[in-house]
Every structure is written in C-alpha cells, then in structure tokens.
Amino acid sequence: MACISIQSALEHAITVFRRSEFSSDGQQIHDARGLLCFVLEAPNSHLITHADQLLTCHQWSRFQSLVARRSHDEPMAYLTGERGFWTMDVKVTSDVLDPRPDTETLVQACLDYLDASPKTVLDAGTGSGVVAGALVRERPGWQLLASDLSLRALRVAAENLKAPAVPLVCGDWTAAFSAHSLDAIVSNPPYLAGDDPHLSALRHEPHMALVADEDGLGAFMRIIGDASRVLNPDGWLFLEHGYTQQDAVIHLLRGSDFQLVHRMNDLGGNPRVVVARLTGDHDE
C-alpha cells in the first residue's frame, strides 16, 4: 500500500527539522535526503529523478521514526549504522562515539612521523576501531593492536577491523601490555570535563567515551603515566585533545620524560593533536 511521494516525504522532514531548529537549513536538507536514501536503499539522484514515486506505508513509517530521532540531535551515524572515516565506511552504534572528521588529524600525524617499516602500534581506547583501521590500511607492515575498556565497543571494533588482523584487548588503556613492548601509542581518549557545556548536545553518545575526571585530563594522566613503561626507548606518543587543552597535555608530557615533537591543528584550525617522543632509556 502506497502512502506518500518522495517529494512530500522530504518536505515533511524539512518541516520537522526547521521546527526543531537543531541545525542549518543546508544540513537539514542534507540529512532529510540522507535518511530517505537510507530507507529506500537508493542513491541521492533517485530522489531527484523519481520525486513522484510513492513510499510504501512501511517505508513512510520508518522514515518518520528516523526523522523524529534526528530532530532530537541523534547522530546520523546512529540512525544509518555507518559513517565514512578516512577511506572507509565503518559500522557505528550508540556503544561508540560517532567518529569525527577532526580525528583524521590523529591518523595523519602517525603517518607523517612514523615510516612504513615494521612497528608495533597500539590504538589505546579504540572505540569503533576507526583509527586502527585507517592505520592498518595505510601501513600494512605495522602490527596494530587495539584496547578498550568497553566490551560493547570492542564488538563494534571487531566488525570494523576484521579481527584477528588487529588483536583486540579488553583493558584500561595500556595496562595489559608488558614493558617495552610498543613502538608507538595513538589515542583519542575522553577529554571533556563533567560539567562541560557541550555534553547536552552529545547526550546520545556513550558518557565513558566523552568524559574524564581531573577536569577532563584524567585519561591523559593515565596514558602518559604508563607510556614510559610500555614504550620502547625513543617510542612515540600521539594524542588527540580538546582545543583548549594543548598546553595542559604538553605540561603532562614534559613531566614524564617526553619531548614535544609537533602540534597539529584540526580541519577547523583548532589545536587538536600533539606528537611526542620518549627521551632516553627507561627501566620497568
């Protein structure tokens, strides 16, 4: 049984989005089209060339449900179940963060400073596995490892990483790894403080992947504090951080025998990544 045309369905969605005032007009149109393409399993061009096509009642009901959820700021990736990152389309669920384009800066930093020769690299707090997945694609000679404290997140990562190509470890950051076993650590840890005003807009995403103690610096303290134990001499540490946290993270690094190598800005020009290297030999 047919219910409504493609054109009318899009107009309905845009009306709902504008009433909610959750994004710009351009984004609202983009999201409406994206959701309808997802429901119809059709490309965007189909919406233009078949604007009078009628949706089935099942398609219309499903589309309305997705539009309602999106109007309450639920990320598109949670609605469609996937997100583009680097050169991949990855599975995303509400058990992991919605991957941000700015995190590609973290991947690029690793590629800029580490050559393609064999290395053992840990993605600490891997979440959906997007960083490890991007690195293993670009550096097939590396042994990538991925850790996370959340079993649910590791299940998502396993699908994206096609484990056992990248071994997954359930544990807190670097705690499960032996002394001097890694050449590099890369991490995008939680870095929001518990009272951060941005949290209300991120309410659909897992709290443990967003918020850290010590005013948002707790995860950095633990990662940096244990990095000198697990890294080989002259090992590398790549950290994504909040745009106001760079000086604080650099202070932590310098207090733990790391030399700052480089600072990198994200796509919006905000401070986002620090690159550091362990100085000298360290005992267990």
UniProtKB/TrEMBL annotation:
PROSITE patterns: N6_MTASE (PS00092). Residues 111-199 form the Methyltransferase small domain. The keyword Transferase applies. Keywords: Methyltransferase, S-adenosyl-L-methionine, Transferase. Residues 18-81 form the Release factor glutamine methyltransferase N-terminal domain. It comes from the Bacteria. One of its GO terms (molecular function) is nucleic acid binding. Pfam families: MTS (PF05175), PrmC_N (PF17827). Gene3D superfamilies: DNA helicase RuvA subunit, C-terminal domain, Vaccinia Virus protein VP39. InterPro entries: DNA_methylase_N6_adenine_CS, HemK-like, N5-glutamine_MTase, PrmC_N, RF_methyltr_PrmC, SAM-dependent_MTases_sf, Small_mtfrase_dom. Its EC number is 2.1.1.297. It catalyses: L-glutaminyl-[peptide chain release factor] + S-adenosyl-L-methionine = N(5)-methyl-L-glutaminyl-[peptide chain release factor] + S-adenosyl-L-homocysteine + H(+). The keyword Transferase applies. PANTHER family: HEMK METHYLTRANSFERASE (PTHR18895), MTRF1L RELEASE FACTOR GLUTAMINE METHYLTRANSFERASE (PTHR18895:SF74). NCBIfam families: hemK_fam, RF_mod_PrmC. This is peptide chain release factor N(5)-glutamine methyltransferase. It comes from OM182 bacterium MED-G24.
